[in-house]
Amino acid sequence: MSASSSPGIQTLLAAEQKAQDIVQKARQYRSERLKASKADALKEVEEYKQKKEAEFASSSTNEQVSANQLNEDAEKAAQAQIEAVQKQGAASKDKVIKMLVERVTAPNTIKA
């Protein structure tokens, strides 16, 4: 009986070894796929990060240009208003001086 069971045991041992090899290959394949997936994910994250950094830099530059343009426009508008007030003051300067002189030199009539 031991002679006839020996080939059966050998067959079982060979099948077990084959199964272990298959499991080992599957684990190795899974490990390789996991590493490859991780590398792909890191690559995608880096590409996304670079894309977003470029967009941020672009929008920051655009916003800064817009802010500078707004400041320049506000400065021009303020300067135009100052010039308008100065022109108006220069135009009525003689009239205001004459009126002040008349008020200061005119006799003051106080009603009691």
From TrEMBL:
Annotated segments matching region Disordered: 52-92
Record GO terms (molecular function): ATP hydrolysis activity; proton-transporting ATPase activity, rotational mechanism
Ranges of compositional bias, category Polar residues: 57-71
GO cellular component: vacuolar proton-transporting V-type ATPase, V1 domain
InterPro entries in UniProt: V-ATPase_G
Alphabetical keyword list: Coiled coil, Hydrogen ion transport, Ion transport, Transport
Coiled coil: 12-51
NCBIfam families for this protein: V_ATP_synt_G
Family as reported in the entry's similarity comment: Belongs to the V-ATPase G subunit family.
Its biological purpose: Subunit of the V1 complex of vacuolar(H+)-ATPase (V-ATPase), a multisubunit enzyme composed of a peripheral complex (V1) that hydrolyzes ATP and a membrane integral complex (V0) that translocates protons. V-ATPase is responsible for acidifying and maintaining the pH of intracellular compartments and in some cell types, is targeted to the plasma membrane, where it is responsible for acidifying the extracellular environment.
PANTHER family: V-TYPE PROTON ATPASE SUBUNIT G, VACUOLAR ATP SYNTHASE SUBUNIT G
Record note on quaternary structure: V-ATPase is a heteromultimeric enzyme made up of two complexes: the ATP-hydrolytic V1 complex and the proton translocation V0 complex.
Record protein name field: V-type proton ATPase subunit G
Organism of provenance: Wickerhamiella sorbophila
Lineage start: Eukaryota, Fungi, Dikarya, Ascomycota, Saccharomycotina
